From TrEMBL:
This is Putative adenylate/guanylate cyclase. It comes from Azospirillum baldaniorum.
């Protein structure tokens, strides 16, 4: 990926995030753009803890098999 590709990807993810694109679509779109740019990516896992009283955190997974990104929530402590 060249410098222009990195700039385009950075711009896309910033604009998509500001538009409120759901996390699964954001991660999926990011990964698909990396693959299209020649990055040998086959799967991704992104996790985040939260300070929510009933949701401890969540994970978004993506793989290159053509399935969409999926969100996994952990709700019980």
């Amino acid at each position: 990926m060249d410098a222009q590709g990195i700039l385009d990807l950075s711009r896309w993810i910033a604009e998509a995030g500001l538009r409120g694109v759901p996390e699964t679509d954001l991660i999926g779109g990011f990964c698909e753009r990396l693959v299209a740019a020649g990055v040998p990516l086959t799967r991704t896992v992104v996790g985040a803890d939260t300070l929510h009283p009933t949701i401890a955190g969540h994970v978004v997974t993506w793989d290159s098999s053509g399935r969409n990104a999926a969100e996994v929530r952990r709700t019980e402590y």
